[in-house]
Amino acid sequence: MLDTTEQKNNLLQVSNIEVVYNHVILVLRGVSLNVLEGGITAILGGNGAGKSTTLKAISNLIHSERGEVTKGTINYRGQSILNQNPSEMVKRGVIQVMEGRHCFEHLTVEENLMTGAYTRTDSKSVIANDLEMVYSYFPRLKERRKSQAGYTSGGEQQMCAIGRALMSKPETVLLDEPSMGLAPQLVEEIFEIVKDLNEKEGVSFLLAEQNTNVALRFAHYGYILESGRVVMDGTAEDLRENPDVKEFYLGISDKGRKSFRDGRSYRRRKRWLS
After folding, report:
1. How many domains does the chain have?
2. Residues in the chain with pLDDT < 70?
3. Which residue, of 104, 144, 183, 255, is most buried by count of CB atoms within 10 Å of its CB?
């Protein structure tokens, strides 16, 4: 775990950003967040809350979807990264693992991993060592390294996507919905690997996740998004103990089980939105 008693550097600072799609649709409304060096930070919320848009605004992949940041600043190590070319972001050490994995289905698992090293200028031996490092974290990929990625399971494709990101030697990984469509056992396995990569390799993670229960067990700090706004933030421990988070995101209530009919008062009773 990240030692919160130590003074950590602010690696990434997002300040009061607004994102608009097609010059019309306002998706993010004044989102601010910080990612500490060496930490795991989680962006939590339901479908359409703005989690993926926040990550794409940081990685500058937002432009491929006719979106743009119209207000606010995004700084990485104190320098603005707004409107930078995504390939420059990779060279800076910031890489995004997209929602839905997006492996090259016609390539083998190993060929997919090697595409992550495309921008590197290191020697073949250094890259080969990094490939072995990836295999040490994902032994299942080593077993399937000659298989076409399109014929592997969803969990193996997610491992492949994370492994491919690691081959670029990232400092920060933006991880979008890593648990999507995966069995609970695989979700645990992938989050354990993320934790190991954070602790042993020093990789910082900013992850967007709907599975609040799992995310708050592995993250150090969390932000909750609702309708494009940050409505709550705090340490993972504080969020786990918050009564509103327990009730609306973890399905736990001090008053026992509730009828689904009580869902009508969901938005009205969110104290942090009042």
Report:
1. 2
2. 1-8, 253-274
3. 144
Angle of CA points 195, 168, 91, to nearest 5°: 115
Over the stretch 121-135, which tens digit does the pLDDT of each residue have?
A: 889 999 999 999 999
Which value, to the nearest 10 degrees, does the dihedral of the CA atoms of residues 194, 196, 199, 203 take? -40
**118, 137, 169 — which closes off a domain?**
169
The CATH number given to whatever domain includes residue 251 is: 3.40.50.300
In whole angstroms, give the CA distance from residue 92 to residue 59. 11
Supply the pTM of this predicted model.
0.86
* Helix (H), strand (E) at residue 70: strand 67-76
Gap between the Cα atoms of 18 and 228, Å rounded:
9
Mean of the per-residue pLDDT values of the chain: 88
Tell me which amino acid residue 50 is. G
Pick from 169, 193, 219: which residue ends a domain? 169
